[in-house]
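Batch job 17 of 40 flagged for manual review because the log was empty.
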Amino acid sequence: MRDRLNILTTGKAIVGFAVLAGLFAFTAPRVHADDDCQRETAKIDHKLHEAIKHNDGKEADHWRHELAEQRQRCWDKDHKWWDEDAHRWHTDHDWDEHDHDH
C-alpha cells in the first residue's frame, strides 16, 4: 500500500513539473520579447533626451524618427508599445510622434 502511495505521489509530481515546464516554455519567449522592446525603446528615448538637452536639433530629429520606428516595431510584433517617460505599456496605437518636441 505504501509503495502504491509513493508511486501516485511521484506521478503527480512529475505531471505537475511537466505542466510548469510547459507554461514556462510558452511564457518565457514572450517576456524576453517584451524586455527587448522595452530596453531598446528606453535606449532610444534616452538618446533623444540627450540630444534635446544639448540643443542638437538634427540629432534630436534623428532619434525622434528612431523612436517612432521602434514604437512601430513593438506595435507590429505585440500590439503594444513602451512609454519610457511614463514607464508603462500602451495597448492602443496612440503615440504622438511629437511628444518630445516640447
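Reviewer: the log was empty due to a logging misconfiguration, but the result itself is present. The radius of gyration is 23 Å. Unflagging and moving on to job 18.
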